[in-house]
Amino acid sequence: MSQPLRARVRYPYRLSALLAGLCLFVSGLVFAPQAQAAGVLDVTCTPPSSAVASYSPALTNSPQPVAATISYQFGPCVSLAAPAVTSGTATVTNPVRDRSCLDLLTGGRTTFTITWNTGQTSTLSLNFNTTVAGAVLEVVLTGTVTSGLFQGDTVVMDQTGPATSVLLCTLGLGTVPSIYTAVTLEITSL
């Protein structure tokens, strides 16, 4: 009989601890407006947003003169700051230079302009880094909107796609004529 009595005595203390923890959590939400000041998501675009990088001639594991073009299709996009923005496009045309499929596994800088469905534009200046994990190629681009709609905002763009053709090419077992990646784009005000 003393066992149930002991359980009844502990229960109010457990309830008090639980309520105290809940009060601390709620007060943290109420009295922490600086957490929202970290940034407001101005626009986000999710898959089937995509990018297709095309190489002419196809990349091999030996450097050769190659032209590269990347075509972006953004949408669906959601924007609280500009509700009419629902999609966009961009094309990056890189001049002919010596390239190989090993170049796809490096980082660098790029600048391009998104033309939104509203006719407005955003010019992005980005740094990118490429990684391969298993059979997945991932390119992470970060930077800022330097002019146009959302000027001054930070940009994070993630591109993921299959790495099979790139890995085979680096081993000398194939070429890379193009790469398709799914894209997630977030543009955030400070």
- Rounded to the nearest angstrom, the radius of gyration is 25 Å
Strand order of the largest sheet: 2-3-5-6-7-8-9-10
Mean pLDDT: 85
Q: Could you say which structural class the secondary elements and strand pairing correspond to? A: alpha+beta
- Please mark out the parts with pLDDT under 50 across 5 or more consecutive residues, or reply none: 4-37
Shape, per Cα inertia axes:
elongated
Annotation, overall tally of beta strands = 10
Q: Distance N terminus to C terminus?
A: 62 Å
Helix share bin: 10-25%
**Annotation field: number of helices:** 2
SSE arrangement, N to C = HEEEEEEEEEHE
Proportion of strand residues: over 45%
Sketch the major β-sheet. Answer: 8 strands, antiparallel, barrel
Annotation keywords:
elongated, 190 residues, 52% strand, 8-stranded antiparallel beta barrel
Task: Set out the fold topology.
Elements (H helix, E strand, L loop, with lengths): L1 H29 L9 E6 L4 E10 L4 E11 L2 E2 L9 E12 L8 E9 L4 E13 L2 E13 L5 E9 L1 H7 L5 E14 L1
Antiparallel strand pairs: 1-4, 1-10, 2-3, 2-10, 3-5, 5-6, 6-7, 7-8, 8-9, 9-10
